Amino acid sequence: MIASYAKFTKRYPIFHFSIVILCIFMFFCSGYLLLVDENIWAILGLITPLPLMFLFANASKYKRKYLHG
Q1: Packing angle between helix 13-35 and helix 49-66, nearest 10 degrees?
Q2: What's the CA gap between 50 and 58, in Å, rounded?
Q3: 11-18 contacts: CB < 8 A, separation 24 or more?
Q4: Phi, psi (5° rounding) for residue 32?
Q5: What's the rounded Cα separation, in Å, for the pair 1 and 7?
Q6: Is residue 69 very low, low, confident or very high in pLDDT (cuts 50, 70, 90)?
Q7: Radius of gyration over alpha carbons of the chain, in Å?
Q8: How large is the average pLDDT for residues 42-60?
Q9: Global pTM value
Q10: How far apart are the C-alpha atoms of 46 and 41, rounded to whole Å?
Q11: Coil/strand/helix, residue 12
Q12: Rounded to whole angstroms, what are the CA distances from 28 to 12, 39, 51?
């Protein structure tokens, strides 16, 4: 899965960038809802981007190692 996502990011960098921006936006909006509105369901928005960030980091490492050029 990491290798296929790394190839995807190499082919479609703008789409990958929009996914990363969406994850960051979701994280900050959920943090705002949790702190200001005290909405406990906002924790899901804080937890959801974590596996995606793990995927992004490992795909970046894979891309740097094997998909150079």
Answers
A1: 150
A2: 13
A3: none
A4: -65, -45
A5: 10
A6: low
A7: 15
A8: 92
A9: 0.82
A10: 10
A11: coil
A12: 25, 14, 16
